[in-house]
Specification:
By secondary structure, the protein is mainly beta. The protein folds into three domains: 108 residues, Immunoglobulins (Immunoglobulin-like), CATH 2.60.40.10; 96 residues, Immunoglobulins (Immunoglobulin-like), CATH 2.60.40.10; 86 residues, Immunoglobulins (Immunoglobulin-like). The strands form six sheets. Strands 10, 11, 13, 14 and 15 form a five-stranded antiparallel sheet that branches. A four-stranded antiparallel sheet has the order 4-3-6-7, with no helix packed on it. The protein is elongated. The chain starts with a helix and ends in a 5-residue tail after the last strand.
């Protein structure tokens, strides 16, 4: 019985011991989300650094990343390069788990000539130059890019913002891409952002991409009708060409223009009110005025003017208040006096239109 207990204790003791693990080689897992975007002669690569090694061990410290240009394989466009030779474009050191970014300036051999595919991949090295292989591929178009956009200016008009640039000869498949970004106003410390006014709609779009075809004609200008006045915007312009390379649709983009900022202040008055009519109401001893509503959506109200005979024009609507409806009832008239009336429109920014065409009316004398 004593011998059996001893054997049981020996067996149970051996069961608690784990098999020894080999030391980690700290080989980083390959990158899987590499992207590439070309603008002019610059290709911007972006990816997320791996956090763990192939054996699940957490990586520590900066890892060396090699950026590679790869010859285009003859297989499917998205096939993974395995033994393709790396044409080094650069090396950087990045911490695990963070966003990686690298800008490759194309050499003249890749920035000229006919459009053709250019493929990138990155390799993350562990200690002792060990690696698990290439990342996924990211492809751009090599060759001569569209010309940069020069002399960009922006001008505010009542119907939107006009962008001007230096025109170039048209080219098949070419477009002018304009990216408009809203500039948020700077708030004072601890100030709360303004609440949206439901009466004014959803407000301006934060970012919008506009495109104009340059295939048949380069006008050198475009009108952005969607820009909302009383806001500040930046515009960045870029020529792009839509084409086919190896049977697949692709885009070749030129360099982006410097950002142009425009403060689109509304300094434009509403249109002059139309259709003013005056009707005498003998029973009420008043003259009723009415006119067509202003077509501008930012019209805040109207001001009513009157003059007797050939006297001076004076405001008869309240001095500190606008008339919000396109009508007014003048109860301060005297019978037998010849009156002239005119109306102007005022917008939310205080811009006032010229006075409308005048109308005449007279309250009959009492019999």
């Amino acid at each position: 019985m004593g011998l059996g207990l001893a054997l049981a204790a020996l067996v149970s003791g051996c069961a608690l011991e784990a098999a020894p693990m080999p030391p980690s080689l700290h080989i980083p897992v390959p990158v899987t989300n590499l992207t590439a975007r070309r603008a002019g002669n610059a290709v911007t690569l972006a990816w997320t650094m791996p956090e763990r090694a192939t054996d699940k061990v957490a990586l520590k410290g900066r890892q060396r990343v090699e950026i590679c240009r790869l010859p285009q394989p003859s297989g499917a466009p998205n096939s993974k390069p395995s033994q393709a030779p790396c044409q080094p474009a650069g090396n950087i050191m990045i911490l695990p788990g963070v966003a990686g970014r690298f800008v490759d300036t194309l050499p003249p051999a890749l920035d000229t000539g006919a459009p053709r595919l250019l493929t990138y991949a990155v390799r993350v090295y562990g200690p002792y130059k060990r690696l698990a292989g290439y990342s996924n591929r990211a492809t751009v178009i090599a060759g001569a890019a569209p010309p940069p956009v020069g002399d960009v200016t922006a001008q505010t008009r009542p119907d939107g913002i006009v962008l001007h640039w230096q025109p170039r000869p048209p080219e098949h498949g070419m477009q002018m891409r304009m990216v408009r970004t809203l500039v948020e106003p700077k708030l004072a410390p601890h100030a709360k952002p303004p609440q949206p006014n439901p009466m004014l709609g959803a407000g301006p779009v934060q970012r919008q991409v506009l495109e104009v075809s340059l295939a048949a004609h380069d006008p050198g200008q475009a009108l952005d009708r969607d820009a909302t006045l009383d806001h500040t915007y930046t515009y960045v312009l870029q020529r792009v060409i839509q084409l086919k390379v190896d049977g697949a649709s692709a885009e070749l983009a030129g360099a982006k223009s410097p950002a142009v900022t425009v403060d689109a202040k509304d300094v434009f008055p509403p249109s002059v009110p139309q259709g003013l009519v005056a009707v005498a109401d003998a029973q009420a001893r008043s003259i009723d005025l009415s006119w067509e509503p202003s077509p501008q959506p930012d019209t805040a109200g109207y001001i009513v003017y009157r003059r007797a005979a050939i006297g001076a024009w004076r405001r008869i609507s309240p001095a500190n208040q606008l008339v919000t409806a396109p009508a007014w009832n003048d109860t301060t008239v005297l019978p037998g006096v010849h009156y002239q009336y005119s109306v102007s429109a005022v917008d939310r920014d205080g811009n006032q239109s010229a006075r409308s065409a005048s109308v005449q009316e007279e309250l009959p004398r009492q019999q």
